[in-house]
Design brief:
Blueprint: H1 3-12, H2 14-34, H3 42-72, H4 83-103, H5 112-135, H6 137-140, H7 145-167
Helix pairs in contact: 2-3, 2-4, 3-4, 3-5, 5-7
Length: 168
């Protein structure tokens, strides 16, 4: 099964997608009501961690796919965006994170630091890919590919540590 076939299957069965991406923020809302003021305590923080991973992994993938399509596929119109597979996961992720943040600080939720690190690395990779694509570096530099990969890896490390020190 290809990614296009998977998206076609999800588009043909919208009830599954809508139930999943509306059920997660609804569950977070119910947990916030039931555990008012106790979001940093043991049972709630683990529930929030599961909900965040359930919604952020598809949301990050949908955001990455949207950025890739608009930056690198050249010709992808915004009118061709699939609302079920490209917009709903991102909207659900934003809504769920907003609901959870009201009841529990993210630094108390297990694994959230790794997830935010993943988001940072994906953002850094896309920024570097965009700059390298626009520079056409391979066209006017006669450098072996191994050196280019080392340069990109070095730039990623510099970008990550700069962003980490800027945020902290």
């Amino acid at each position: 099964m290809t990614l296009r076939e998977f998206f076609d299957y999800l588009s043909a069965n919208p009830a599954i997608v809508v139930a999943f991406f509306l059920g997660i923020p609804f569950t977070a809302l119910l947990a916030g009501i039931m555990g008012k003021g106790e979001g940093h305590l043991s049972p709630w923080k683990y529930l929030y961690s599961v909900l965040i991973y359930l919604v952020c992994v598809p949301g990050i993938f949908a955001a990455s796919l949207a950025v890739y399509l608009f930056l690198f596929e050249r010709g992808g119109s915004i009118f061709n965006v699939n609302l079920l597979t490209q917009v709903l996961p991102i909207a659900s992720m934003i809504a769920t994170l907003g609901i959870i943040r009201r009841n529990a600080p993210f630094n108390y939720i297990p694994g959230f630091g790794r997830l935010s690190g993943l988001m940072t690395m994906i953002f850094a990779v896309f920024v570097l890919m965009f700059f390298l694509d626009r520079l056409h570096l391979v066209a006017w530099v006669n450098v072996p590919v191994q050196y280019l990969l080392v340069i990109v890896a070095g730039l990623l490390l510099v970008f990550r540590f700069a962003l980490k020190s800027f945020i902290s």
